[in-house]
């Protein structure tokens, strides 16, 4: 079993959301269920998040609760197979050709453009 300091040194993903209604910022750690905090400024929220992470891990160790390690990019190959209608395939090929890039690069551009939209 790892120690508190070993878990604290791991890079857990943080989700930071600006609270439009109340003001300030809310921070959570998706890999540490229920570990959430807030702060009036981003700086205070970040400090509170570090403290919340430490206390969450400390309590989990004391209670014998399983602590998941952070998700790693090594778990993802960067490839997936996608079946699409022929008409969409043609459209993507035509657009990428007009842009002077490969269809793969064009699809990555479209996916990343939409991913940014959904993460706001």
From TrEMBL:
GO biological-process terms attached to the record: regulation of DNA-templated transcription
Which residues are in the HicB-like antitoxin of toxin-antitoxin system domain? 16-78
Task: Tell me where the transmembrane regions lie.
Answer: none
| Record InterPro entries | Arc_rbn_hlx_hlx (IPR013321), HicB-like (IPR031807), Ribbon_hlx_hlx (IPR010985), TA_system_antitoxin (IPR051404), TTHA1013/TTHA0281-like (IPR035069)
Q: Which PANTHER family does the record cross-reference, listed alphabetically?
A: ANTITOXIN HICB (PTHR34504), UPF0150 PROTEIN SSL0259 (PTHR34504:SF2)
Name of this chain's protein:
Antitoxin HicB
């Amino acid at each position: 079993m790892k120690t508190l300091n070993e878990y604290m040194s791991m890079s857990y993903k943080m989700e930071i959301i600006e609270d439009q209604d109340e003001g300030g910022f809310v921070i959570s750690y998706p890999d540490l269920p229920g570990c959430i905090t807030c702060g009036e400024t981003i700086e205070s929220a970040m400090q509170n998040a570090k403290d919340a992470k430490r206390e969450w891990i400390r309590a989990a160790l004391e209670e014998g609760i399983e602590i998941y390690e952070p998700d790693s990019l090594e778990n993802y190959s960067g490839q997936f197979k996608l079946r699409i209608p022929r008409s969409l395939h043609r459209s993507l090929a035509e657009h990428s050709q007009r842009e002077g890039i490969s269809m793969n690069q064009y699809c990555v551009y479209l996916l990343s453009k939409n991913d940014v939209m959904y993460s706001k």
